[in-house]
Amino acid sequence: MSEERDLQNANVSAMSDQISSITEERDLLQADLTEMTKELERLQSLFNQMKMCPTGWKMFSVCYFFSGISGVWGEARRDCRDKGADLVVIDSSKEQNFLTTIIKENTWIGLTDNGMEGQWKWVDGTPLTLSNWATNEPNNGGSPNSEEDCVHIRAEDRRTWNDISCTASMKWICKKLP
């Protein structure tokens, strides 16, 4: 009987050791799973930030298309919309600086006072807050009866903005999310 009890105690002890070993292994696997889940979330976040722009577009937190042809402001806007974008709305001086490093010619942006003279609004409907007007601009051509209702970035003059007739022909910049 004593031998049988000793054998049972040995079996219980061995099983207890096995349970401890399995529990420890489970805990290690759970820790590994937790780490892998965190790494997956980190990589997913990076992937989401790295969404790509369409071919021919440039990335600077969003996608920009710099036209290779010239057109009037309305044509420029229509082309951007056909691309699932709109004329660029400039939200920061960093964005302004980025854009001006690329343009080589006068270039349309999405700013106009078509709705009411002197009330400048972006194509997304937001009012103008940040600006980069050239000296003495906007000036509506120097006459209250002129029709300088659209805005472009000047290729010269420190890349400042100028109001000009919407029927002038120049290149443009489209902007959209990746």
How would you characterize this protein structure?
The chain has helices spanning 2-49, 73-82, 93-102, and strands at residues 58-60, 62-66, 86-87, 107-112, 121-122, 150-153, 161-164, 171-176. With 178 residues, it is an alpha+beta fold. The protein has two domains: 1-50; 58-176, Mannose-Binding Protein A, subunit A (Mannose-Binding Protein A, Chain A), CATH 3.10.100. Strands 1, 2, 3, 4, 5, 6, 7 and 8 form an eight-stranded mixed β-sheet that branches. The longest helix has 48 residues, at 2-49. It is rod-shaped. 20% of the residues are buried. Keywords: Coiled coil, Disulfide bond, Lectin. This is C-type lectin domain family 4 member E-like.
Topology:
Layout: H1 2-49, E1 58-60, E2 62-66, H2 73-82, E3 86-87, H3 93-102, E4 107-112, E5 121-122, E6 150-153, E7 161-164, E8 171-176
Parallel strand pairs: 4-8
Antiparallel strand pairs: 1-2, 2-8, 3-8, 4-5, 4-6, 6-7
Mean pLDDT score: 92
Largest sheet: 8 strands, mixed
Q: Based on Cα principal axes, name the global outline.
A: rod-shaped
- CATH class identity of the largest domain: Alpha Beta
Number of domains: 2
Q: Could you state the CATH homologous superfamily of the largest domain?
A: Mannose-Binding Protein A, subunit A
Strand-residue proportion: 15-25%
The number of distinct β-strands equals 8
Query: In angstroms, what is the radius of gyration?
Result: 32 Å
Distance between the termini: 78 Å
- Flag low-confidence runs: none
DSSP helical segment count:
3
SS content category: alpha+beta
